[in-house]
Amino acid sequence: MKKYFLLLLLAIVGPPYSAQPSSNTESPSRYELIQGNFNWFEAKVDAERRGGHLATITTQQEWNAIRNQIGPSQLEGRLTWLGATDSRIEGQWEWITGEPWGGFLNWREGEPNSTAGGVESDYIELLQLPNNPWNDTSGQDRLNYYLLERPSPVKPTIPILDLEFVTIGDPGNPADSTGYGKVDYEYLIGKYEVNNTQYAAFLNAKAKTDRHSLYDVRESSHNGILRSGSSGSYAYSVKPGMERKPGGIR
Question: How far is CA 16 from CA 9, 142, 152, 176, 213, in A?
């Protein structure tokens, strides 16, 4: 049952943190100020380990959203890494996500200046000044903060299948004494067990040839999902009266 539910969830909803629009009209992302001691490369790896990336700021609206979420006073007192570099081609700045460059720029006056003390300055930091102007600096500098960006999970609306989801939050929660309970990032799971109607809908969408044996021949006798046709055109239906019964093999 767990395998079937996971397959259904991934097939319909998509994997955790796939980029989707959210109810936040300013930005579809959530931002966190991560404290530590990082050079740019270490910050990049740590952000990806947390299920996100070094923040990219492509519009004034996105910068407004960041300041609203974190707070200007928290940002303006800290040197903070961003996800931008011109290490590939000097002077050609790029966001690490591949988003277009130039829609929003916040350089400090006189920046970028390409070098600092004779060292190439290929990475961007937010300066600890009002409105956090950008400075280009060496990626080997060690800063105490970086700005993490993660897409916000969105509760899907699937009225036909009537699936309800709940959010598993508290990222960073450690495992308990049993070894379970660790939460690396926020994600959605189904609130209830998948029933025959929902699982049959999944099979009709994903198992026309059933290369992965998603349908077990025992299902018709155990849980009421019937299969007709031949490989390439399989069709699945539910026995009358079994629509709301749990799907999958017990």
Answer: 10, 31, 10, 23, 24
Domain that holds residue 220: 1-16+153-250
pTM across the whole model: 0.53
- Phi first, then psi, for residue 3 (nearest 5°) are -65, -45
Q: State the distance between the two ends of the chain, measured CA to CA, in whole angstroms.
A: 7
Q: Which tokens sit at 242? A: 């079994």
132-186 pLDDT tens trace: 999 999 999 999 999 999 877 654 444 445 677 888 888 888 989 998 888 888 8
The H or E element containing residue 29 is strand 29-38
Cα separation, 159 vs 68, whole angstroms: 33
* Residue 99 and residue 199 share a domain: no
146 and 243 in a common domain: no
